[in-house]
Amino acid sequence: MATSRLERIGTIFTRVEGLLTRGAMKPDDRPLWFDVYKAFPPIVEPKFARPKPEAKAIRQILYKEDIIRAKFHAQGHGIGINMLSPAGETQVKKLIQQYEKLKSEGVPENKLIEKSVAAVSTERQLDAKISPKIH
């Protein structure tokens, strides 16, 4: 019974195991991963001749906040982050909250970005006047 060329290749594990059993490699010289692989072998053996897995299409996952966020970023808003205040909300999060609030109040779609930016900017200016700057 002839074996094909691909069946004779084996895995790196079987090669190291063969070296150890035939004495070509001392047990003290075995790789660190060898004992772990032996104790916890993979479910599907990683062979060279294994067929490639079927390529699956990647689904686009977009949340409604992502679309709103993209609108703000397209107009250059929402870039700044206050790294001195890790507990505070990001400017983009505030913009999205303001956008949702104004949308629920019936503000036209073409004015939502502009009015959200204005409201958040006003809020930031008030916060800057109230809280002292950290130096």
From TrEMBL:
A Pfam family matched in the record: MRP-S23
GO biological process: translation
Entry keyword set: Mitochondrion, Ribonucleoprotein, Ribosomal protein
InterPro entries to which the protein is assigned, alphabetical: mS23_dom, mS23_dom_met, Ribosomal_mS23_met
Similarity comment text for this entry: Belongs to the mitochondrion-specific ribosomal protein mS23 family.
Domain Small ribosomal subunit protein mS23 conserved: start-end pairs: 2-123
Protein name: Small ribosomal subunit protein mS23
Compartments reported by the entry: Mitochondrion
Organism domain of life: Eukaryota
GO MF term list: structural constituent of ribosome
GO cellular component: mitochondrion; ribosome
Chief localization: mitochondrion
